[in-house]
């Protein structure tokens, strides 16, 4: 089956990438925007297997917003791209010894100029960093012209280029065909490898207090088979890909709601392994963990020592069996006790809820790590999104979480 790759970027660069042609085993779908501020919406609404960003700016915007949930890469603007632009400028009679350029690394720019035997002492470079936007880039080029008398502005960001071209001689860099092809090929290989991972065997063990004739119907979304084990429990055979779909990427398990409506207790454990034997061992461990959490609970265990706790939603949420100690709670959630202790400290100072940024600041970690912490707490039923922060902000409003620690 062909991998569907969404190409994210400004319309003209997206068309250039598509015109380059897809890699073997892939089809390309345009996901164009008019301004990079639309990146998050474009990515969130896409239904593709992988994402190819036409530059580091949209890639970083999407990554920081937490919407990159599938294999993704960006096409780099390297020294060869710059050299091709300089040759074209020379052909048109421009002075290429005094220019300003954004996004590329300074070392890469200087190395390219030295190899071309061009002077470097009057070149101004603004390397890309997270948070750098179109206004920052335009201000840099204007400042370079005013302070250093640069003759040409070279930009990798389309929105900045369109503002600059009316004020000064400007060039917009676009990725080379070689960069496009090599990045696309690497992305397709990565995505194909993930699809192979989706085919990993997943075994489930379901422990119920009495027989359940409706269980087979509940498992139709898993597309697998159901068998009765000698100890009275049920064995489910499926694949990781189907399990991810049926549990919405391991965030909720409708099966638990159905079982909670019919039984006083229900424990579901799934194991995902490289072999059937490994998956079965992980499933048995997972169902044992589920039994220690509450009256109704599910756990997914994976071979890389990851355990995801899933509890039922609605009126049948599992009731914990007594107060849990910090180490036990940490093991259930999948965080170390020190992290959980610091989260308790933070919760005490934020009675009205907290955001990902609050967690990142308190734990001194990056935003993506803070998101993972909150996601683990949410999956364990200990963090609930309650609102979004609207006032005094632009862009996507942060989610406010209420924690019960």
TrEMBL record:
This is Transcriptional regulator. The lineage of its organism: Bacteria, Bacillati, Actinomycetota, Actinomycetes, Propionibacteriales. InterPro entries: WH-like_DNA-bd_sf, WH_DNA-bd_sf. SUPFAM superfamilies: Winged helix' DNA-binding domain.
């Amino acid at each position: 089956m062909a991998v569907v790759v969404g190409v994210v970027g400004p319309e003209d660069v997206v068309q250039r990438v598509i015109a380059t042609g897809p890699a073997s085993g892939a089809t390309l779908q345009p996901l164009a925007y008019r301004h990079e501020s639309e990146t998050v919406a474009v990515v969130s609404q896409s239904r593709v297997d992988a994402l190819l960003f036409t530059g580091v700016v949209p890639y970083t915007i999407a990554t920081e917003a937490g919407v990159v949930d599938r294999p993704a890469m960006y096409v780099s603007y390297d020294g060869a791209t710059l050299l091709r632009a300089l040759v074209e400028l020379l052909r048109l009679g421009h002075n290429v010894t005094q220019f300003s350029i954004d996004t590329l690394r300074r070392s890469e720019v200087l190395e390219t100029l030295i190899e071309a035997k061009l002077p470097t002492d009057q070149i101004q470079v603004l390397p890309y960093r997270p948070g750098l936007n179109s206004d920052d880039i335009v201000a840099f080029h204007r400042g370079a012209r005013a302070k250093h008398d640069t003759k040409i502005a070279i930009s990798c960001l389309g929105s900045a280029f369109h503002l600059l071209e009316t004020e000064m001689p400007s060039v917009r860099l676009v990725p080379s065909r070689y960069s496009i092809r090599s990045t696309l090929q690497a992305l397709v290989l990565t995505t194909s490898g993930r699809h192979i991972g989706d085919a990993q065997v997943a075994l489930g063990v379901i422990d119920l207090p009495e027989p359940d004739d409706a269980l087979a119907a509940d498992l139709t979304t898993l597309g697998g088979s159901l068998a009765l084990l000698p100890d009275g429990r049920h064995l489910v055979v499926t694949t990781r890909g189907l399990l991810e779909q049926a549990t919405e990427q391991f965030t909720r398990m409708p099966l638990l709601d159905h079982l909670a409506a019919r039984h006083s207790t229900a424990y579901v454990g799934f194991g995902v392994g490289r072999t059937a034997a490994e998956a079965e061992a992980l499933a048995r461990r997972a169902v044992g963990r589920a039994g220690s959490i509450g009256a109704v609970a599910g756990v997914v265990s994976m071979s890389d020592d990851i355990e995801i706790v899933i509890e039922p939603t609605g009126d049948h949420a599992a009731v914990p069996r007594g107060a849990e100690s910090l180490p036990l709670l940490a093991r259930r959630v999948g965080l170390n006790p020190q992290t959980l202790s610091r989260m308790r400290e933070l919760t005490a100072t934020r009675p009205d809820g907290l955001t990902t940024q609050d967690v990142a600041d308190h734990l001194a970690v990056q935003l993506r790590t803070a998101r993972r912490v909150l996601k683990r707490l949410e999956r364990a039923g200990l963090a609930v999104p309650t609102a979004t922060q609207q006032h005094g902000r632009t862009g996507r409003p942060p989610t406010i979480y209420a924690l019960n620690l």
